Design the sequence.
């Protein structure tokens, strides 16, 4: 064999080895112990957070709303919280809409954590969430459209005391699939109804096409802020599948992904999680739109949690 042919053969073999090595790396990304370890660690960390956080979903006690068209007082009376339209005994806060902002005044020195200026501009939501404390309770305050939301958390709630860990399918590499990320040319607004009979607005942002169990499927990814760039933006993927109401939460399931920079990425259904409404009635969760209804079971990610409200 001539030196030139030997050289060409070596180049060809080197190319084949590089391709095989690349394929091995890609396959490793799907099935290595490190990937499973990462999934399990994230699940364990979520359990720790749900068990120990002062705003754990399992500590959710009551959700209240103040309206911008009336006087609002947060009242604590015999271990109960409620909203009154006048200042009753046990009033902790006044929450009023005035000159395009919420004015919040505290009446009890034990209610701690309010911003120093005690005003909240609803335009800045969701960055303007305030976590306060009163006695043993944690109180979350934030504006939402024309209302002001108050969620109270009780660290002694039975559901929190009994919580051990969430329920999951075992990590399964087959549910990590390559997906095509197809951005729409026009980003239409989508109104999603929520569990609190409200409306949340998203932008219909991209179609994700993938093959799972030899079946070609797609899901739509939604975005809340079109100014966020690829590689930074968080995309919301609510969906239903054939496991809902059987092994998973009846109302649907959620995924969140960082917007891919490339046109192809790995979509990992092992990271599917439940709406917070599965754990407590105090949350406001959007229902997945009909276009994201999969006609196959997705036996991956988080299972429903057996709670009672």
Sequence:
């Amino acid at each position: 064999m001539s030196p030139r042919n030997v050289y060409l053969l070596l180049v060809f073999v080197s190319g084949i080895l590089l391709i095989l090595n690349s394929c091995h790396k890609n396959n490793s990304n799907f099935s290595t112990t490190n990937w499973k370890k990462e999934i399990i660690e994230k699940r364990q960390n979520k359990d720790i957070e749900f068990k120990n956080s002062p705003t754990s979903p399992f500590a959710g006690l009551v959700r209240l709303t103040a309206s911008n068209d009336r006087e609002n007082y947060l009242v604590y009376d015999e271990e109960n919280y409620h909203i009154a339209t006048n200042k009753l005994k046990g009033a902790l806060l006044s929450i009023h809409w005035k000159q395009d902002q919420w004015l919040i005044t505290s009446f009890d020195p034990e209610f701690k954590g309010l911003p120093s200026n005690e005003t909240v501009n609803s335009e800045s939501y969701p960055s303007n969430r305030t976590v306060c404390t009163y006695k043993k309770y944690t109180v979350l305050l934030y504006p939402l459209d024309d209302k002001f939301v108050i969620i109270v958390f009780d660290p002694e709630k039975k559901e929190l005391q009994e919580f051990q860990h969430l329920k999951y399918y075992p990590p399964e590499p087959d549910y990590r699939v390559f997906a095509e990320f197809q951005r729409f040319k026009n980003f239409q607004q989508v109104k999603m109804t929520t569990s609190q009979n409200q409306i949340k607005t998203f932008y219909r942002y991209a179609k994700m096409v993938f093959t799972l169990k030899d079946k070609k499927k797609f899901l739509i990814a939604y975005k809340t802020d079109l100014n966020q760039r690829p590689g930074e933006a968080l995309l919301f993927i609510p969906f239903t599948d054939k496991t809902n109401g059987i092994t998973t939460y009846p109302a649907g399931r959620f995924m969140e992904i960082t917007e891919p920079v490339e046109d192809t990425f790995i979509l990992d259904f092992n990271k599917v999680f439940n709406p917070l409404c599965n754990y407590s009635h105090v949350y406001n969760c959007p229902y997945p739109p009909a276009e994201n209804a999969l006609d196959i079971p997705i036996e991956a990610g988080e299972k429903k949690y057996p709670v009672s409200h």
Q: What stands out?
A: The chain has two domains: 57-162, 166-292.
